[in-house]
Amino acid sequence: MLMGIDLKPYKKSDTTKKQEVTSMFDGIAPYYDFLNRLLSLGIDTIWRKKAIAMLKDDQPKQMLDIATGTGDLALEAYKQLKPDHIIGLDISQQMLEFGKEKISKKGLSDQISMVHGDSEQLPYEKDRFDAITAAFGVRNFENVDKGLKEMLRVLKPGGKLVVLEFTRPKFFPFKQLFNFYFANILPWIGKKKSKDKGAYKYLYESVQAFPDYDRFTDVLKHNGFRSTNWKSLSFGICAIYTAKK
């Protein structure tokens, strides 16, 4: 079992991580986009652009965006790549509803479908997608190995996986600034806006617990992926991981 799998947002004894993560995102959905921009100082939009740019040479036609949330990565994928179709899948129905509204306003409802589902039990046949993306969602899986194996199953041979995740900066002063901001400032702002301090406290804890850099590419290899690589962004706050089937 991977490190960090048992970490839950609210740490209740009678609920699973999957249940708590679903409840957490349902609760913060109305504030999610606003807080993302505020708490990252807008840098998260740049990270998404760079992640999707990793697929330009592949020119995928059928794409799956795992843990799509309100659809930001799916929208960026369509903007840059113009695939035939993108499916955005998420376990939080409330996040999907806000995503559907954004996509509809851009007139892209035929190009991007928002689907309620479990990333660890994907409702798709083997070898379906040319590319799979996931931004800030893999560390929320209850069973990361199971989720990655499902992604591998539905990815076409030669298809590419792109994962965007927070990482832990290694060097002074960014390591110290990151830890202070994520452990103290971010939960305080999150609580003021969303009334849920636990959600943003969990963000820091989950980043600390989750394997990053070479440790995550090792996990990808363990679950059957090849040609794994990672690229650090913003002084080690975030990383893009790529792998192929």
The radius of gyration computed from the alpha-carbon positions, rounded to a whole number of angstroms, is: 17 Å
Spatial order of strands in the largest sheet: 3-2-1-4-5-7-6
Please state the second-level CATH architecture: 3-Layer(aba) Sandwich
Number of domains: 1
Q: Percent helix among the residues? A: 40-55%
Number of helices: 9
Structural class: alpha/beta
Order of helices and strands: HHHEHEHEEHEHHHEE
Q: Termini, distance in Å?
A: 22 Å
Tell me about this structure:
- This protein has 245 residues and is of the alpha/beta class.
- The chain has a single domain (17-244), classed as Vaccinia Virus protein VP39 (Rossmann fold), CATH 3.40.50.150.
- It contains nine helices and seven strands, in the order H-H-H-E-H-E-H-E-E-H-E-H-H-H-E-E.
- The protein has helices spanning 17-28, 32-39, 43-53, 72-81, 93-105, 144-154, 174-194, 197-209, 214-222, and strands at residues 62-66, 85-90, 112-116, 129-135, 155-166, 226-233, 238-244.
- It has a seven-stranded mixed β-sheet with strand order 3-2-1-4-5-7-6, sandwiched between helices.
- Strand 2, helix 5 and strand 3 form a beta-alpha-beta unit.
- The radius of gyration is 17 Å and the shape is globular.
- The mean pLDDT is 91.
